[in-house]
Amino acid sequence: MPYLFPLGPALLQALPSGALFWADHSLLVVSDLHFGKSDRLARRGGALLPPYETRATLTKLDRDLTVTGARRVVCLGDSFDDLTAAEEMAEDDSLWLTRLMAGRDWTWIEGNHDAGPMSLGGTHLAVLRVAGLTFRHIASPEVHEISGHYHPKARLPGRIAPCFLIDVARVIMPAYGAYTGGLNCDHPDLQALMQPRALAVLTGRTCLARPMR
How far apart are the first and last CA of the chain? Predict the structure, then answer.
């Protein structure tokens, strides 16, 4: 089940997958896809991971687009793990992503890992504003803002799960991509960004809301 909450003028749905849906604008938001992370680690002599994260992330995105019927998509930066990953995406995966983009208004927000995959089309922006909400990669002091970057996670007995951080001023999105690490929601950087009564909404089979602190 999704978790419904208001942010400024909008009623939003945090989905168990880690995506955010704004039904009034048929808009799906995802952050930190990090396509090509296993390839980037292998190129740079890091840990060797099974090269399946791009396909796993595309499968999840395909499912969310089908379920929501979203006509507009905003990717909040770090969609690819680096610019080379965008250029060297496997042909089958690139065609799959192109098919998902077809017929949709698709915006790539610039991240710190990438400036957006220019060869794939869509709109490329540093910041997007829609009907009273602001979308960017890294949180700012602006209110009614949706951002990513930090990959927040929360701990429950027996498991750690990616989570949304939500207060009356902002949402910080979980990383949507497979093989992404995370920052615990009790980290001082996240505590400083969020208001005292902020919620952590954990993803998984269903959404679970709990106090962030």
Answer: 23
What CATH number should be reported for the domain holding residue 183? 3.60.21
Per the CB < 8 A criterion, the answer to whether 11 and 20 are in contact is no
**Full-model pTM:** 0.90
Phi, psi of 114 (to 5 degrees): -150, 160
What stretch of H or E contains 70?
A: none
- Please name the residue that has the structure tokens 């909040």: 76
Q: Which residues pair with 128 in a beta bridge?
A: 135
**10-residue stretch averages of pLDDT, the chain, 213 residues long:** 96 98 98 71 45 83 98 93 67 91 95 70 93 97 96 89 97 88 91 96 94 91
Residues 10 and 25: their CA atoms lie apart, in Å, by 10
Residue listed under structure tokens 């060297």? 88
Query: How many domains is the chain partitioned into structurally?
Result: 1
